[in-house]
Fold this sequence. Notes:
The protein has helices at 17-28, 47-50, 62-76, 78-82, 100-115, 125-131, 154-167, 211-215, and strands spanning 7-13, 34-37, 54-55, 93-97, 121-123, 142-146, 150-151, 171-173, 180-184, 187-193, 196-205. By secondary structure, the protein is α/β, with parallel strands linked by helices.
Amino acid sequence: MDEQPRHAEVAIIGGGVMGASVAYHLALRGQRDVLLLERGDVFGQGATGKCAGGIRFQFGSEINIRLSLESIPMLERFEEELEQAIGLHQGGYLFVLTRAADVQVFRRNVDLQRRLGVPTEWLEPDEVRHQLPILKFDDALGGTFNARDGLCDPSSVVNGYVHAARRLGVTCLTNVEVTGLRVTRDRVTTVVTPLGDIEVGSVVNAAGPFAGEVGR
């Protein structure tokens, strides 16, 4: 196991999918002296480890659609690029609508998705029933379908990022809890842990639901 260093040019707090991804992509772009800190026994045991692993283009907000346009292609090439299988299965998401109000909302969502380059299908009631004939959809008013939506294994994604980051020289540590930050002239200069202080050039707060606690 790597020892905790006394200095890091970039310290990333939180070893879930966000922190691990940041560590990998910084190193990939040539950033040296990157440190990834996770307070748990394993990487990705927080919010990442508790999520269902769903991936989709079908959102109603532009920012989420744009994020999906970046992240899903990355997941599609993940195994080739990072040498880690992630259990990716793109069987599509079918949303079935049974209320008129939802039909209006989802039609707007499909229009937005298509405007941003996502070819989501709008399905009429008969097409919904044809899509899944084993289920009874007598009350369906319509539906949406995107074949590239699907599932993957979040833990495998985290492990893939961590292993690839280590190959690029990132120090990745578990069982290191950040207990404080020291600020000099409005900039974080020290990360405090039970194992000692770490002088840092920059900090990335990727602690998920604990980000507010870390940032206080």
